[in-house]
Specification:
Blueprint lengths: L1 H5 L1 H8 L26 H8 L2 E4 L2 E4 L12 H9 L3 H7 L2 H16 L10 H13 L1 H4 L5 H21 L7 H16 L4 H16 L13 H20 L6 H16 L18 H11 L14 E6 L2 E6 L19 E5 L2 E5 L7 H6 L9 E3 L6 E2 L5 E3 L3 E8 L2 E8 L9 E8 L5 E9 L7 E7 L4 E5 L2 E5 L4 E6 L2 E9 L6 E9 L7 H4 L10 H4 L27 H5 L16 E12 L1
Helix pairs in contact: 2-9, 3-5, 4-7, 5-6, 7-9, 7-10, 9-10, 10-11, 10-12, 12-13, 12-14
Pfam family, one: Hepar_II_III_C
Protein name: Heparinase II/III-like C-terminal domain-containing protein
Subcellular location: Cell envelope
Length: about 600
């Protein structure tokens, strides 16, 4: 590996030799007619025709010949250089769109091989697949010179992928790079080295990221979607070219598709964990239909670290594991034990989501952006400057079902090194899916620290206060939220759909210490067998409280007295430090009032 890194520049220079004018034969057209599987956005195509780009809701000018700019966000640069926007021009379908597509591809090819930004093989792979997938739209009717240059560029840039892989791309982006290499391999069968290298690399690329339960190693549902998408495209390319399917690709698609289905809410969008957004439900369904013919939903995701409770119309998805391994934890959130809850097609309790904007992206990684416990200014994870995680908590989970009722128990010790103790969360979902109950505990606390538990609400949910709780109104149902803790309503944000939407959140804080036991335990929602577990520990009798030594007692000598000088060199035992008791549990429930 070190030798390959040292020779990287030489390998790239060799790969980017133009085959035109040499001894190599450059075919006039692809041997296989590939078709891009995904729909584009005609509005985006119209913007391109007008020399504008529309990406993630932001409009930017399209400047001729400008393919890189240090001021651009990373995601925008990848999108522009990846040429996936050819789908948008094809969707527009007008002759002006065809001409624009051809013009932009020609401008890219006008760059000398040394000028082309090809250092990222995943962007190159996306570009090659886009060129071949939209070839019939923009290139088939072009003149011979354009098509010859395009075929030569395909050869050069496919060689650059071979020169840079596997070191320069990992995760689902490694699959994107290999997809582009595969597309060129089947389109130019006179270059068998492309297919040979693809088959040599694909097994490892899959085994490094797709877990036994079908989940993705980053624990980000959106990364899993991208992974399934790349596998679906590979299967299509292999089938069209009549190339025998590698077992690893077919097996990975059959495992990951059920896992992806398990990470969808009733509205068809993705759950918001570790940097994911909802994504378009129709697109997700299209990807799944291409990846696997079965419609199986994974019952459990033990290796991925997610718990899924589903009864009736109710669905709860919880983050029940620690961060991904080093190297794959760049999008990890400190949202361990957080959950999202939906009923039918309506999300009720959510996490805040993610963003590609730097400030938002960082803020949304902290516990406050999740439906979970938060301890003052403490964080259960330590984020490195490069975005990785240096301090990862231990997380446990246990699920059970009794008489149709689901029980999920989870703990994490992320706050323990800072004195915050062990956080445990127990959640029950009844057999009809009409009652969700929770018990939150913080044990072995060694420092006094304020805590709160946040429940972020979806923007479609409206709140109405009742005497002993709050009604949550959705377009189809009304739910009732109760807690024995103090409930405040605060502003929140929701970025699940790629934009920042205002919403509300419930913030639970422990009830006053002088609240009577009868007040604390009077709610009928919690099962009777939990009463003993929830009993508030009695106050410590005064005679058992550790005495605070007084000045002059021998432990804390008055420095003005002679005794203090005699004690200067005496090793004294430290005064006893009273340990803060475990926090009383907080209970809450969410029950369906009417549908």
């Amino acid at each position: 590996m070190p030798l390959r890194r040292w020779t990287r520049g030489a390998r790239l220079a060799y790969a980017m030799r133009n085959p035109l004018g040499g001894f190599a034969r450059v075919p006039a057209a692809p041997a296989v007619a590939l078709r891009d599987l995904w729909s584009g956005n005609a509005a985006g195509g119209e913007q391109l025709v007008r020399n504008q780009t529309l990406f993630e809701g932001t409009q930017r000018p399209l400047i001729e010949g400008e393919w890189d700019n240090p001021q651009w966000p990373e995601a925008y640069r990848r999108w522009l250089q990846g040429f996936t926007w050819l789908q948008d021009l094809r969707e527009l379908g007008a002759e002006s769109a065809r001409i624009k597509a051809r013009t932009l591809v020609a401008q890219w090819m006008e760059q000398t091989p040394a000028e082309r930004p090809i250092s990222d093989p995943s962007i190159t792979g996306a570009r090659l697949a886009a060129w071949l997938g939209c070839y019939e739209f923009f290139a088939a009717s072009a003149d011979d010179s354009f098509r010859q240059q395009l075929m030569a560029s395909l050869i050069m840039e496919a060689r650059s992928i071979m020169a840079l892989m596997p070191e320069e791309a990992k995760g689902w982006r490694a699959l994107t790079a290999l997809k582009g290499l595969l597309a060129v391999a089947v389109s130019l069968p006179d270059y068998p080295e492309f297919l040979t290298r693809y088959l040599r690399l694909i097994d490892t690329a899959i085994s490094q990221q797709i877990l036994p339960d079908g989940g993705h190693i980053t624990r980000c549902p959106e990364d899993l979607l991208q992974c399934v998408r790349e596998l679906a495209e590979m299967l299509y390319i292999l089938q069209v070219a009549r190339v025998p399917l590698p077992t690893s690709v077919l097996d990975a698609a059959n495992r990951s598709a059920p896992a992806l289905r398990a990470m969808r809410h009733g509205d068809g969008g993705l759950a918001l964990f570790n940097g994911s957004c909802e994504q378009n439900p129709q697109f997700i369904e299209h990807v799944l239909s291409r990846a696997s013919r079965t419609r199986v939903v994974a019952a459990g995701l033990p290796e991925s670290g997610f718990a899924r409770l589903n009864n009736g119309r109710a669905l709860l998805i919880a983050d029940a594991a620690s961060a991904a391994p080093a190297g794959y934890d760049g999008s990890a959130h400190a949202g361990m034990l957080s959950f999202e809850f939906s009923s039918g097609r309506q999300r009720l309790i959510v996490n805040c989501g993610s963003s590609i904007q730097r400030g938002w992206a960082e803020a949304l990684r902290y516990p406050a952006a999740h439906s979970v416990l938060e301890l003052a200014d403490l964080t259960p994870m330590r984020f490195d400057a490069d975005g990785g995680i240096s301090q990862k908590p231990q997380v446990t989970r246990q699920t059970s079902v009794q008489d149709g009722m689901h029980c999920l128990s989870m703990t994490h010790d992320g706050y323990k090194p800072q004195g915050g103790g062990l956080y445990s969360r127990k959640i029950y979902l009844d057999k009809d899916g009409t009652l969700l109950q929770g018990i939150e505990k913080l044990e072995d606390v060694s420092i006094p620290v304020p805590l709160c538990i946040r429940f972020h609400l979806h923007p479609d949910v409206s709140i109405e206060q009742e005497e002993d709780g709050y009604l949550l109104h959705t377009p189809e149902e009304t739910w009732f939220f109760w807690s024995d803790a103090h409930i405040e309503i605060e502003e929140s944000v929701y970025l699940g759909q790629g934009k920042c939407e205002p919403t509300r959140q419930f913030v639970l804080t422990p009830a006053q210490s002088d609240q009577s036991d009868e007040d604390v335990h009077s709610s009928p929602e919690i099962a009777p067998e939990e009463e003993a577990e929830l009993a508030t520990p009695p106050d410590m009798p005064e005679e058992q409280m550790p005495a605070v030594p007084e000045v002059g007692s021998g432990l804390l000598a008055d420095p003005s007295t002679p005794e203090a000088h005699a004690l200067e060199n005496t090793l004294l035992p430290p005064p006893p430090v009273p340990q803060a008791p475990s926090k009383p549990p907080i209970r809450w429930s969410l029950s369906l009032k009417n549908a």
